[in-house]
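Appendix C: a fully annotated inverse folding record. The material below is reproduced so that readers can follow the format used throughout the book. The structure is listed first as tokens, followed by the designed sequence.
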């Protein structure tokens, strides 16, 4: 094995473990915040996706949420029973179901904003300078774009713009 191959494996080892560690820490924070409003992290994430793309199909939700379609179907079924979402048959294609957030689901999603103190990453980013955050974000966007595609990045970018444009709606009442 060449020195270059060894170095590539070392880099991969470092990145995989750092990313996994970061994911585990974020997942733990997300679980705490979601559980306070009676949701799983996936359900909380689905409500947030729908707040930006209400009326999405199961396939669209699976692509954006990075879940298998069967996972989305099960999640939607449970959330529909709890009155958080509703399924509506698409007017143009009866085989397609569109998922909409209910009024209760919207209220619960807004409640999740109160869990902000659970997200340790937020306070860490607040301690970083703007350039460090931009550089880190640029690297993550490149990696995710290459691995998951531009459609995923388009959702991230468009939803972040919507957050800026709808800041009044994000305000806790």
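Designed amino acids, in order:
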């Amino acid at each position: 094995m060449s020195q270059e191959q060894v170095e590539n494996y070392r880099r991969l080892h470092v990145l995989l473990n750092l990313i996994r560690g970061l994911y585990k820490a974020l997942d733990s924070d997300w679980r705490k915040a979601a559980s306070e409003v009676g949701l799983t992290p996936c359900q909380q994430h689905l409500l947030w996706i729908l707040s930006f793309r209400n009326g999405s199909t199961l396939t669209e939700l699976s692509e954006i949420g990075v879940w298998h379609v069967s996972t989305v179907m099960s999640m939607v079924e449970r959330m529909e029973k709890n009155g958080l979402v509703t399924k509506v048959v698409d007017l143009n294609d009866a085989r397609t179901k569109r998922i909409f957030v209910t009024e209760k689901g919207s209220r619960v999603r807004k409640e999740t904003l109160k869990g902000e103190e659970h997200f340790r990453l937020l306070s860490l980013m607040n301690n970083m300078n703007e350039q460090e955050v931009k550089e880190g974000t640029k690297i993550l966007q490149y990696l995710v774009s290459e691995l998951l595609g531009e459609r995923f990045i388009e959702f991230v970018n468009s939803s972040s713009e919507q957050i800026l444009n709808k800041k009044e709606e994000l305000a806790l009442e």
